[in-house]
Amino acid sequence: MFATSDPRFEFPLTEADVTWLNSLFSLPEEGETRERKEYRLLTEEEREYFHRAVNMLKNDTTVSLNKYDLLANIHSRSSSNTAAHGGPGFLGWHRVFLLLFENALRQMIPTATLPYWDCTLDQPLSHPSESVIWSDLFLGNGDGEVNTGPFRGWNTQFGFGLLHRQVSSLRHLMSVHDLRNILEEDFLGNISYPDTKSSKNLEQLHNNVHVWVGGLMRKIEIGAFDPVFYVLHTFIDKVWEDFRVHQRSKEIDPTKDYPEFYGRRNHASFAPMGLGNLVVIDGISDVWNKNVVYRQPSCGNSGQNECGSKFLRCDHSTWTCVSKTKDEVTKSINKDKHKDTTLSRTLNSGLKELDNLYIPSLLNSGISHSVYSDFLYPLKDRQSTAMYSENVSQSSALQKAKEIYMSHLN
């Protein structure tokens, strides 16, 4: 999984490239909270903004390649890649890189914020490849060329063809057990390369997910050309932030916790990070995630969306949230459409009967046509809203309409 140099990625940057990349090095402003939610917790509007901002970067060719691919290429270059993988600098490097990408998104749409993909919500499924994450509502299909969802038909750079994946063919997703193993440790060196065993090595656990997704994600140098990269790494960053909170509970300062034995020289404290003028030790500073908060789903909410999302369900045997499958969500959507159609028919039938029974008598009682048009029809609109919020029968719909009209007359 470790990167090797590929001359294709080392093209010279133009002045426009450098100017734009430098514009991304900014911290969240004071008072500006960036809430990074689990992908399935996003509102429809938030999800649309995220997808649109990513595509706007992809379509912006004012720099080499395009803005999305130019930034992804930074992850491919040997000047930065060697400090990004295979050592304790992994987490800090990617934290800075995520902030650059999020800043790029916000240049497109100021309210756009990175969501994260908590793959432990998919891991309990019999077939995690059937998760709703791999539907057109989120990342698109995971079997071959991506031809559904917001990133369908994307061309990639350097001759890698259309965006493609092969989920679930090799390796496995991270589990809740993996997260518990991580949080049992106290120091960064205990969850990092070079010598931490795989069950507690956060970078190795993340590598498994890269391979599980397949396609471009399977190879480190080109993984960032697939948007899956960013939502996965935002999750890894959340896990690291949880770990840092755990450290503070043990009175360990995470901003001073860098292992004395770091392995490869590119992970030495003062080795160049390959991102601007930063050095590796800068990655463990608190400044990069200042005013960044993570929101995760949890069981316990009442009602249909008990995990805070119609795309999740609560497994009451473990009291944890689990992703719904594509089929479950499709059936739920079709059921809602059928319910809406039934309510609409009920409402229309009730209002038609209301018109036949009441309107003539109201007009005969001296109510003018202007009152009829200016007041009664808006009332029917309000009554329509009420009917949709209550699962009522045709007769009760009619009764509700009668009560509204009679209360006005009184």
From TrEMBL:
- Keyword Cell inner membrane present in the record's keywords: the answer is no
Write out the entry's keywords from A to Z: Copper, Metal-binding
Q: Name one GO molecular function term.
A: metal ion binding
Q: Which PROSITE patterns match?
A: TYROSINASE_1 (PS00497), TYROSINASE_2 (PS00498)
Query: Is Metal-binding set as a keyword in this record?
Result: yes
InterPro entries attached here?
A: Di-copper_centre_dom_sf, Tyrosinase/Hemocyanin, Tyrosinase_Cu-bd
Protein origin, superkingdom: Eukaryota
Question: Which segments constitute the Tyrosinase copper-binding domain?
Answer: 85-102, 226-237
Pfam families per record: Tyrosinase
Question: Entry's PANTHER family?
Answer: TYROSINASE FAMILY MEMBER (PTHR11474), TYROSINASE-LIKE PROTEIN TYR-1-RELATED (PTHR11474:SF126)
Protein name according to UniProt = Putative tyrosinase-like protein tyr-3
- From which organism does this entry originate? Magallana gigas (Pacific oyster)
